[in-house]
Automatic annotation (TrEMBL):
A GO biological process held by the record: neuropeptide signaling pathway
Pfam families: 7tm_1
Subcellular localization: Cell membrane
Name of this protein: G-protein coupled receptors family 1 profile domain-containing protein
Signal among keywords: no
Organism of provenance: Helobdella robusta (Californian leech)
Protein's gene: 20195775
Membrane protein topology class: Multi-pass membrane protein
Domain G-protein coupled receptors family 1 profile: from-to ranges: 25-286
An MF annotation (GO) of this entry: tachykinin receptor activity
Cellular component, GO, one term: plasma membrane
Transmembrane regions listed in the UniProt entry: 12-34, 46-71, 83-104, 124-147, 177-198, 230-253, 265-289
Keywords, sorted A to Z: Cell membrane, G-protein coupled receptor, Membrane, Receptor, Transducer, Transmembrane, Transmembrane helix
InterPro entries per UniProt: GPCR_Rhodpsn, GPCR_Rhodpsn_7TM, Neurokn_rcpt
């Protein structure tokens, strides 16, 4: 299936704008934290890790996969086929594990305020562990992703996961692998995050603060509430953006690209845009809900006439 050039151009414009906003916004987040000493907090280190994950998937996957879906042809070779299949579950795993790390950090700060905070070295060790686990989850894609010449009205090449024990069209192992990814990188993390933030919210909005109530303590409570609200917003946006993509992949896991109908290509282009657009929302949320990030964005974008 080849869509008309003008339809492809419209899709391409939306994808390109999303990539520019997502990449630019996440690079600014990294600059704000890394380039300003007062911004180097535990939570912000984790936010940098989120920004790195979002920037990686935006730069190395989004436009390449869009071209593949729009033209039903993979022109980027075997090695990049493996890499692009690897980068998506790797960065998504990194993001959700980082969400959990932030939630646990908030949990211990608010429910156990007397315990010592995480050190910078400990945070870096946690981030290293997050990437190690993410690499392990995505590693099968490096092994089993491959290109295959597909003979039809025009010679095309497809890029897909082909497991050794399955045929070309119906892939039971691919279905099982997508189900595992869905549970490990979506269902379980969101369940853990919901339970953790519910407990944190009960403590913040209903519990009694430790110590005498002072203006300093009131400011601290307000700041903790703002951080929790911001992270809940980030997690909710992630869940909403990636739900259609996950459901679509599971439903269609047993059918390869060569079995797609024309209307399915359009549906998937829209669903995939929604999923990838998650990468551009986090910087917007930080800018909207955090004054320090907002000031950083204003400095970074001061050359724009509207800022």
């Amino acid at each position: 299936f080849l869509m008309p050039w003008y339809i492809e151009s419209i899709y391409g414009l939306f994808y390109l704008l999303m990539v520019l906003v997502a990449a630019g916004g996440n690079f600014i987040v990294i600059w704000i934290v890394v380039g300003h000493k007062r911004m180097r907090t535990v939570t912000n280190y984790f936010l940098v890790n989120l920004a790195i994950s979002d920037a990686l998937i935006t730069i190395f996957n989004t436009m390449f996969n869009f071209i593949y879906m729009a033209r039903s042809h993979w022109p980027f070779g075997s090695y990049y086929c493996k890499f692009t299949h690897f980068i998506v579950p790797c960065t998504i795993s990194s993001s959700v594990f980082t969400f959990i790390a932030i939630a646990f950090d908030r949990y211990f700060i608010i429910l156990h305020p007397m315990k010592p905070r995480l050190s910078a070295r400990t945070v870096l060790a946690v981030i290293f562990g997050i990437w190690l686990a993410s690499f392990a989850i995505a590693f099968p894609n490096l092994i089993y992703a491959q290109i295959f010449p597909f003979r039809c009205e025009n010679d095309r090449t497809v890029c897909y996961l082909h497991w050794d024990d399955d045929d070309l069209i119906n892939d039971d192992t691919d279905f099982r692998y997508n189900m595992v990814l869905f549970v490990v990188t979506y269902i379980l993390p969101l369940l853990i995050l919901c339970l953790t933030y519910m407990r944190v919210a009960v403590e913040l909005w209903s519990g009694q603060p430790v110590g005498e109530w002072t203006e300093k303590l009131a400011d601290s409570m307000r700041m903790k509430k703002r951080v929790v609200k911001m992270m809940v917003a980030v997690v909710c946006i992630f869940g909403l953006c990636w739900l259609p993509q996950n459901v679509f992949l599971i439903i269609n896991a047993k059918r390869k690209q060569m079995d797609r109908k024309p209307h399915e290509i359009h549906i998937y282009l829209i669903i995939y845009w929604i999923a990838m657009s998650n990468s551009m929302y986090n910087p917007i949320i930080y800018c909207w809900m955090n004054a320090k990030f907002r000031n950083g964005f204003q400095r970074a974008l001061r050359w724009l006439p509207c800022v």
